[in-house]
Design brief:
Blueprint lengths: L1 H19 L16 H4 L9 E7 L4 H14 L3 E7 L2 H9 L5 E4 L5 H6 L4 E15 L9 E2 L1 H8 L9 H6 L11 E5 L4 H13 L1 H6 L12 E3 L1 H11 L3 E6 H6 L6 E3 L5 E2 L3 H8 L26 E9 L1 E2 L2 H15 L16 H13 L1 E2 L2 E2 L2
Parallel strand pairs: 1-2, 1-3, 5-9, 6-7, 6-8, 12-13
Antiparallel strand pairs: 3-11, 4-8, 4-11, 9-10, 13-14
């Protein structure tokens, strides 16, 4: 029942954004959650309609779509449009000031931040899992893999599904001699950055030959645009293997692999295992909130987990728009967290919410505090 509910929520959210472009916001407020005291203070109705444009990561798109729909009910004069174009495009568009906020799973690096025309702030919005998913119709048991095997497959060194290294980890799976068809992202992608960051941390061969980043030179395979494109290709290609955000695999009923973590345990992607990966980060997270939590310690930690970020200027050019963005994000890290778990994202830990609050309270436009 939980899976059906989550899938329905995803399809409803994505359809709403696809059909409307910018959220029209139903006048019926019955479906919205009650505001917390802290988030209530940040949400006040505006006197005129404000349109906000965001673009970037596909990783949080189902959740952001739901946020836009629900926020629009409580704030009908704020129209938010988010384009799911990939983290690389999101970083470029916020750097070029062509959007009001960007979205990226990969924190901007120092070089990217230095090229922006102003200081950009990272606001963590949710936590998710990048999963390794596949299409083997006759294999019913969920598969187990190690980073060595994942790297070998994506390097093109493990060419068939019945390779001895895979068979050794899955002796009862009756793996076929089908060739492995790799599907990777074709666009600049935070999902790719998280996935390759994990492989670079755990596979010396991958680190030396490919490295990590939003865009890398893939040794083999075919490209798909966005999490949607990769999911679609895997779904229609028997023998294929790729990586997507968890909700996209759940939405299309694709299987996910249990991955051997830093503690030597095979862990399935779940809300609990993603939260476990984030535990303890609050004490060591840097002041700018840019952090990687791949290959985290702990028996229950899922090894390919990540925060995703909204990217905003510390000092905006328009008071009205900057204030509207700040209030929307404030709502997102409070009331918006209620929609995380049904869509297979983990809620932000309370300590991270506190740090995100401080970042939002520091935002200004034309020297004026926004919250």
């Amino acid at each position: 029942m939980r899976k059906a509910s989550a899938s329905a929520l995803v399809m409803s959210a994505v359809s709403a954004v696809a059909l409307l472009g910018a959220c029209k916001g139903s006048g019926d407020s019955k479906g919205s959650t009650a505001s917390s005291t802290s988030s209530n203070a940040a949400i006040q109705p505006t006197d005129s309609t404000i349109s906000l444009n965001g673009a970037g990561a596909t990783f949080p798109f189902p959740l952001y779509s739901k946020w836009i729909a629900e926020y629009g009910k409580a704030n009908p004069k704020v129209k938010v449009n988010y384009q799911s174009v990939g983290s690389g495009a999101g970083i470029k568009q916020i750097s070029d000031r062509t959007v009001d906020f960007g979205g990226s799973d990969a924190p901007m690096n120092d070089e990217q931040l230095g090229k922006a025309p102003g200081k950009i702030v990272h606001i963590p919005t949710t936590l998710g899992a990048v999963v390794v998913t596949y299409n083997l119709p006759d294999v019913k048991s969920p598969l187990k893999v190690s980073s060595e095997v994942i790297a070998g497959m994506f390097l093109g060194e493990i060419k068939k599904w019945n390779d001895p290294k895979l068979v050794a980890l899955n002796p009862d799976a009756k793996l076929p001699a089908t060739p492995v068809t790799i599907v990777h992202r074709s666009d600049g992608s935070g999902t790719s950055a998280v996935f390759t960051d994990y492989l670079a941390k755990t596979s010396p061969a991958w680190k030396e030959k490919v490295g990590s980043g939003t865009s890398v030179a893939w040794p083999t395979g075919v490209g798909g645009k966005g999490n949607e494109g990769v999911t679609g290709s895997i779904k229609t290609t028997p023998g294929s293997l790729g990586y997507v955000e968890l909700v996209y695999a759940k939405q299309t009923n694709l299987p996910t692999m249990a991955i051997k973590n830093a503690a030597g345990k095979f862990v399935d992607p779940s809300l609990e295992s993603v939260s476990s990966a984030a535990s303890g980060v609050a004490a060591t997270i840097p002041d700018d909130l840019r952090v990687s939590i791949t290959n985290a310690p702990g028996d229950g930690a899922y090894p390919i987990a990540a925060f995703t970020y909204a990217l905003v200027y510390a000092d905006g050019q328009s008071v009205a728009k900057s204030e509207a963005v700040a209030k929307f994000l404030w709502w997102g890290i409070h009331d918006g967290q209620a929609f995380s778990e049904p869509l297979h994202y983990a809620k932000l830990p309370p300590e991270i919410v506190t740090k995100a609050e401080a970042k939002l309270k520091s935002l200004k436009a034309e020297g004026k505090p926004l919250l």
